[in-house]
Design the sequence.
């Protein structure tokens, strides 16, 4: 049973799902260990290295145009911009994923400008072929 009063709803459900006495998936000391912050686990130098790498690959001009290139959820840091470039390279048609929140929401959200949607493939340097 979920015990919200103990403040561990999500962890409890996941841990319980993997806690099998007959066929243990994970050792108990791993399954029930304290969750650590990402930076505490990998070390700050690794995170600083990722930020430095992003800063080398995203210049100030790119950041000044970020709102035009990525009108939805515009990246605010060079690191976020860099990850977004990688995502868009592998998932160029993912604009539909971004827009699904607008169309499936029960709350009326302002739609992004259609020009931004129409221009997205060209901004990403890709040609669009529409089949009818």
Sequence:
């Amino acid at each position: 049973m979920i015990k919200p009063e103990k403040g561990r709803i999500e962890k409890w459900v996941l841990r319980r799902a993997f806690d099998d006495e007959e066929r243990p998936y994970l050792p108990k000391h791993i399954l029930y260990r304290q969750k650590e912050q990402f930076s505490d686990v990998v070390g700050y130098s690794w995170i600083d290295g990722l930020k430095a790498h992003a800063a080398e690959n995203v210049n100030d001009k790119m950041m000044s145009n970020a709102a035009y290139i990525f009108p939805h959820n515009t990246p605010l840091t060079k690191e976020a911009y860099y990850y977004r470039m990688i995502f868009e390279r592998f998932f160029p048609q993912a604009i539909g994923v971004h827009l699904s929140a607008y169309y499936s929401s029960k709350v009326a959200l302002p739609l992004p400008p259609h020009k931004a949607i129409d221009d997205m493939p060209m901004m990403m340097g890709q040609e669009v072929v529409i089949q009818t």
